[in-house]
Amino acid sequence: MNIYDIAREANVSIATVSRVLNGSGSVRDLTRQKVERVLKKYNYVPSAIARGMVTNSMKTIGVVSIDIRNLYYANVSYSIEQALRVLGFSTILCNTGYNTGQKLSYLKMLAEKKVDSIILVGSTFKDPKLNKPIREISELIPIIIINGYYGYPNTYSIQYEDTGALEKSVDYLVSKGRKKFLYLYDADTFSGNQKLLGFKNAVKKHNLESDIRFIPPGIDHAYRQMCELIERGAFFDAVLASEDITAIGALQCLLDKNIRVPEDVSVMGYNNSILSLCCTPRLSTVDSMSEEMGKTAVSVLSRILAGEKVEASVKIGAKLVLRQSA
Amino acid sequence: MNIYDIAREANVSIATVSRVLNGSGSVRDLTRQKVERVLKKYNYVPSAIARGMVTNSMKTIGVVSIDIRNLYYANVSYSIEQALRVLGFSTILCNTGYNTGQKLSYLKMLAEKKVDSIILVGSTFKDPKLNKPIREISELIPIIIINGYYGYPNTYSIQYEDTGALEKSVDYLVSKGRKKFLYLYDADTFSGNQKLLGFKNAVKKHNLESDIRFIPPGIDHAYRQMCELIERGAFFDAVLASEDITAIGALQCLLDKNIRVPEDVSVMGYNNSILSLCCTPRLSTVDSMSEEMGKTAVSVLSRILAGEKVEASVKIGAKLVLRQSA
DNA sequence: AAAAAAGTTGAAAGCGCTTACAGATTGGTT
DNA sequence: AACCAATCTGTAAGCGCTTTCAACTTTTTT
Asked: Are B79 and B294 in contact (CB under 8 A)?
């Protein structure tokens, strides 16, 4: 069943069928009805592939995310998808983890599928292997990077003020009298580095004692490593983490060791995910504005596709969410 | 830049270029190298759209999910996407919420994009408006329903033993001496109904006193409604919820009211999401096997696409995860 | 060395649509 | 009644590829 079959049965040309299908051009009312009747009769589904062949667009964009099982990425991806739906685009979702090879093969696939654009959600800090492919693809289609930056032409960046967020967090804790800081980070991403930078800035500014530890993602890792740290006699009165889940693991260890939170130690998470509301005491955290990040990316994208000149970089401001843990 | 340009520059026919591009047919080594050199030189990206036009497949499948911000759906969608990647398929992700109109328009879009299959993740209990479209689309492409059932030809169902899960939960709590049960459910899905059925079965079996309450999704709803219930003097010693998050909201209220969990009241969640590890006490829950659900769907799908005869319905067994709250 | 087999290549059709462009029809004017 | 403009419709080209089929080349067999 194709457009020819419909045209034959409706006794018109395929051009006419195409016009009623797309509501383009002008078609006499009687003709339109005749065609629509046949369309309905056969429950006709036009081929977007064939249309894409002609128009050179499948009205699809690729979203390359780290891992949607992480609530932050899920929220960003969700808001992207919903915003794109309104614009009539569908989204191909790709989870790459921190695997460069997987990212490369996804980028290649998206380029071949001629997506109208690619939105990268999160990016590793430095990955030289990605530079050339990104530059090459960006010559063909615009690339939007959420929490990342490439700086090539036709490459756009939406960033959260991660550095500022960490600075604000430390400032706040200092104002509460905290003096010895522990920072727990969990992945070598662009954002991760921004956060780390913010922490270091703040520590230097306030001339604080501090410790920085890498902890692989996961609540149990955080719990265990925190316990080890304490058992080895580490001392601190403020714990900051790059993810809510890490903060919660640490928090649970503290509580199990009968260290009071926030009386003895303040704990702050990051992302304001639903997790931060599940623990006791409720976690103070940073609202990383996942929804706004996604929406902004799509709004930038729609302006690019409309041919407007668009700023290469947008920054979204940091906001603390103070609850019980700090 | 298309296959003709490459062919001209390499001094071969487009058929030959196509062969080296796809590694199909046989090409003399010298010829292959000649072509590959040109391919590399221009960094050629073949058009999957044009290929799709010929082969009538874009190697893409549509995943229609309720909302990936919910961890369960995120996990299922993730495992689907990863399993599909291995098979060389990309996935178009669609979040529909509980909105029938949105679901319909997504289904139409997927049909037009000629996806090789559609995987529905979660489905509303009864939605007659969906029946006809589902049946019509299933005549064109196979539809896999995770936690749902249609029963049309070319329609396949992957179900979790939700009914059994609730029965087991109640059985367990009865064995612990619990007598007055409260069940909190949050959405009118197929699974939701199965769970409810399981709860009712078990209550009848054990001849228990019970109350059933609908609570809209969200931790704050659960918290508030639970508190109201208690303030109105409701009495129970076991609370079951259809989602971890609901259980946690209830749990927090109980704790705030100085009701001890699990000493005075047992609480059980559902899904074994990371949330269940974030609260204190840790939540006992049901492992809903999100990863296995997704993987099973894809393995069923791959057999369908390979032309094998496949059972129309697969059921995955229920498993309790006992922790501190019950 | 001739014939048969195997390997390699190219010409051309066709996938299902959109979109100039031209031609046909309609309606409105004089 | 003749004419022009506006509206409607159809013809045909072309989007970039895969694949069949036939032709040509090389290798193997006798």
From this structure: yes
Q: What is the DSSP letter of B283?
A: P
Whether the CB of B136 is below 8 Å from some CB of chain A: the reply is: yes
Query: Angle between the B71-86 and B290-305 helix axes, to the nearest 10 degrees?
Result: 40
Q: Given CB atoms, is B74 within the 8 Å cutoff of chain A?
A: yes
β-pair partners for A94 = A64
Residue of B nearest to A249 (CA): B278
The answer to whether the CB of B198 falls within 8 A of the CB of B163 is yes
A78 with B68: Cβ contact below 8 A: yes
Type of residue at A181 = F
Q: Annotate B75-131 with DSSP letters as a single string.
A: HHHHHHHHHHHHTT-EEEEEE-TT-HHHHHHHHHHHHHTT-SEEEEES-BS--HHHH
| Dihedral pair phi/psi, residue B101, rounded to 5° | -60, -45
pTM above 0.90, yes or no: yes
| 8 A C-beta contact, residue B166 and residue B102 | no
Query: How far is Cα B43 from Cα B48, in angstroms, rounded to an integer?
Result: 15
Over residues A67-104, the pLDDT tens digits come to 999 999 999 999 999 999 999 999 999 999 999 999 99
First CA to last CA across chain A, in angstroms? 65
Residue (of A175, A167, A145, A176) closest to A296 by Cα position: A145
SS3 A110: helix
Kindly indicate the confidence band of residue A187, based on its pLDDT and cuts at 50, 70 and 90.
Answer: confident
Tokens in use for B315? Answer: 């059921």
Inform me whether the pLDDT recorded for B187 exceeds 90.
no
DSSP 3-state percent helix, strand, coil across chain A (nearest 5): 50, 20, 35
Which two structure tokens, joined as six digits, stand for B181?
């049960």
For residue B71, give both structure tokens: 């961890």
* Nearest residue to B134 (alpha-carbon basis) of B120, B121, B146: B120
Query: Which of residues 141 through 170 in chain A touch B, CB cutoff 8 A?
Result: none
Answer whether A77 sits within 8 Å of B93, measured CB to CB: yes
| Beta strands B209-214 and B180-185, pairing class | parallel
Q: Which two tokens stand for residue A291?
A: 């929804």
A258 touches chain B (CB under 8 A): no
* Smallest Cα distance from B211 to chain A, Å: 25
Instruction: Using CB atoms within 10 Å of the CB of residue A282, give its burial: 0 to 12 exposed, 13 to 18 middle, 19+ buried.
Output: middle
